[in-house]
Amino acid sequence: MAEGEGERTKKRVMVAIDESECSHHALEWTLANLRDSLSSPLLIYTVQPLQNVSFLAAASYGSPPPELIRSVQEYQQKVSLALLEKAKEICSERGVVAETITEMGDPKEAICQAVEKFDVSLLILGNHGKGALQRNHGQ
C-alpha cells in the first residue's frame, strides 16, 4: 500500500447532536454499535441555530440593545459548549476519541455542509421522535 493511501480509506463518522433525548440516544447507539470500527476520531457536531430576536424587540419596546443580543448569543454558545463537553466525556468513558465542532446557522444546511467539509462517510442523527407511527397519527 502506498504511503498516505490508508489515510484516504479511513471512514469519518459524525454524530450531529442537540439537547434532545434523541440526540443522546444517537450518540449512545453510535458508541454501542460502531465503537470498534471507528478508525479516526468520532466527530461530534452541534449547530447553534440563528435565533429569532424579534421577541427581544417586543420585550424591549423597539430595537433590542446590542448588549442584550450579545448576551443571548453568549448564553447559546455556553449551552452548546457544555453539550459538546458532556458528549466528549461520554465518549471518553467508553474509550472513544472524539473531536467536537460547533457552528452557527440553520441546522439542516450546516450539517450538510459539515458532511462535505469534513469528508464524513457516515452521518448519525436522532429522529426527534417522528417515527412512522407518530407521523401517521391522526391521518
Automatic annotation (TrEMBL):
It comes from the Eukaryota. Residues 11-135 form the UspA domain. This is Uncharacterized protein LOC105045260 isoform X4. It holds the Pfam family Usp.
